[in-house]
Sequence to fold (616 residues):
Amino acid sequence: MELAHILKECKKNNPKAQAALYKMFAPKLYAVAFKYSPNKQEAEDNLHDGFLTILKKIDQFKNKGSFEGWMKRIVTNTVLQKYRKTTIFPLISEEIQEEVTLDIDEENIDLNLLLHTIQQLPNRYRLVFNLYVLDGYSHKEIASLLGISEGTSKSNLSRAKAILKTRLENNEQLNLNNF
Amino acid sequence: MESKNIERLYQEKLKDLELNPSDAVWQKIEQSLAPQQSTKKRIFPYWFVAGLVAILCIGFFLFPLESKINTSKNHIAQTTQQQDTLVKRVKQLPKPSVTSANNNPISEKTSITQHIVTKTTQQKNSTHLTKKNASPTTEKLRIIQSKKTTKKDFLTTSPNTKSTSRNIIPKQKDSATTDTPKKDLVAEITTPKEKPQPRISKKLWSVAPTLSQYITGALSNNSPLDEQLNSAEKTGRSSTSFGINLAYQANPKLKFRTGIHQINLTQTTLNNNLNSFNNSLDFIEVENVRSNNPTSSDEIVSDAPDISEPTNPSNKSNESINSFEQSLSYIEIPLEINVNIYTKNKFQLYVLGGMSTLFLTENNLSFVGNQSTTNGSATNINNLNFSFNLGTSFEYHFSNKWFLNVNPGLKIQTKTFRSRNNNPYLLGVSTGLNYKF
Fold:
């Protein structure tokens, strides 16, 4: 089935089309949910909630722009709504480091490790890191999306990168020790 | 080992990331979707069946006398006399015939004597119409040529007095009392249907004021008025109908529609059968016709003094009937299934079939003469009628909330007349501006 046809049928609540749409886009949407969520279980819950929202609002998609992008934004929003209000970490005033580099052998970097380190970040840090680094939002947009200031967004990003760096380096160290 | 920007590392590694969720996720999504779909499926039959049952029940309650009326016939005859010495009795019996007598054979003019015996009198099981010819000296005496003395409804046209016209025929009382609750109950049926039922999800309901233009015809040329008019030329008149439609979109392919409409059938029968009828407004004797002029029960209730007002029979007695104009009005409650057969962009095409329940609200029959018109009503019209509906519906959805539909269709009535010699139909087109909610 072509996407246009699936879309049309989904708008009519055709169960087969809904299943086809899920099959077609679940891996991409789950990737979004996964990197924004703290763990696999919550990632699946968020995919579930996000996909239901997609089906519910599919009438509102006006064929302007990418349908995939529209769906990803819905999943992202689903996650943001869930985690943006949680402030589980204390405010830390520190210098904002624009560039964080680490010495690392990329060959040893596993995809799962990268995802795991992101998921391990505190909620706000994880959201800011994902939005800014992986999905290309500006600090201004992030500030608006999360209801924080741009400064907080920058600070959160800096802190997130520092944590990631530490964890990756620790992991690198662990790998080296294993040799 | 090299120095690597951490942002770039994540961007590169996680670019176009795809991960497969467990099958449980889709199963949960399906479970979450299922209640919505099953709810939609469940809502429809309850609503549909309840509506259908309500309409049928109320129909049967409203017209319990139908069978009795069917078996009894009113036989009214008229003769003319010089002065208005009227003796009138009504009788409603299975196979009555009517006797009319000319009480004043010497007179030149005519007056009417009607023997109409009502059921309430219960005096006779049958009456016979015997026509006593006026005296040979009577110039204008006219006599009904009643070949059929059984199972006939005779028109009575009597130039009656004002006082008698105020009285009410028992049968008319019956019909009057049944008319009133009928309207109320019809309103009761339709009121809840018109209420928008709250729907959480998509806009499945639509409501529309409709305007229809119909032409009336019949499947055969048989006359519902009298067999003698079977060969007469008949023409249906176009009529305009108003109403409200309510539709429920059960699924993308299927839509159910009901509503309430006022419809009107008008048929003109030219009286070209000169040999069969006396062609006089005074003497017309048609099988299934009752005059609206004060007759029947007036004649029971009132005694001679009440109806002694002189009349002027000469006005009508010579006038011939050019045509009969029969007009029937109904409140129509349709139940129709619309099947979507074509959709493109904002345009949708449905074929529809269904049936309508029709409640008679007006039964009028006019005898149109050269100079005057006499009103009456047909006695063989069922108060409850049904029609089978076929048609197509073109819909243009110009916004999320509004669409326009044009609906050409054919409605064939099934129980218009007690004598099933004819089935009228309405062929026409209706249109409406629909609001979805």
